[in-house]
């Protein structure tokens, strides 16, 4: 059952594709000490610590750390590192483990996830591929898939001129309950998809109003990196 929606991202132009390689650079520039990380500008953030290996190299392992505690409910590991890409696995309590591959010097991100989550009654697996180096092509810039014991689906997104993003999701039920599940998926899926798109558009609009339009990729990368590190300690408190 096909679901379609669209949203216009105000304050964004094609230069936003530069954010991905900038984020890789910001990550490589971090300096880790015993219980935290030092940013490029000298500020220190407690929360995410390097507990094994060499930072940003294959075998590096990171955990949430607060006052010397290592609860182990948030673990990130650099699985592979090459001149062209880096692959990281993130395992958080209550979430499906995810592996993310980021191309170095490009705007391409691939992710895979496979595991079980409490409350979903089964294993969920899927993939996502984002390629912002192909903004002028007809092929979708984002392609994702998801599979569960009861549901299977594919999501595609196209960036149009003016940064209107068209999203199409093809979702269907599996097994004997397929005729019953399909109408429910369409009704709920349409609402959920629209809500997600509208929320992200509002966040980007608010960001552009505060930081200026069009958004500066350097400023956006700095904010994403800073927000992630700032959220690590509250993450521990929520779990």
Could you list some keywords that capture this structure?
239 residues, alpha+beta, 11-stranded antiparallel beta sheet, 3-stranded antiparallel beta sheet, 3 helices, 14 strands, globular, disordered C terminus
Q: What does the model show?
A:
This protein has 239 residues and is an alpha+beta fold. The chain has one domain. The chain contains 3 helices and 14 strands. It has helices spanning 19-29, 178-211, 217-238; strands spanning 2-8, 31-32, 36-38, 44-46, 48-52, 61-64, 74-81, 85-92, 98-103, 108-116, 123-131, 142-147, 151-160, 164-173. The strands form 2 sheets. Strands 1-14-13-12-11-10-9-8-7-6-5 form an 11-stranded antiparallel beta sheet. The chain has a 3-stranded antiparallel beta sheet with strand order 2-3-4, with helices on one face. Strand 5 and strand 6 (61-64) form a beta hairpin. The protein is globular, with a radius of gyration of 19 Å. The protein starts with a strand and ends with a helix. The relative contact order is 0.19. The model is unreliable at 235-239 (pLDDT under 50).
Entry summary:
This protein is α+β, with helices and mostly antiparallel strands and 239 residues long. The protein is built from three helices and 14 strands. The strands form two sheets. It has an eleven-stranded antiparallel β-sheet with strand order 1-14-13-12-11-10-9-8-7-6-5. It has a three-stranded antiparallel β-sheet with strand order 2-3-4, with helices on one face.
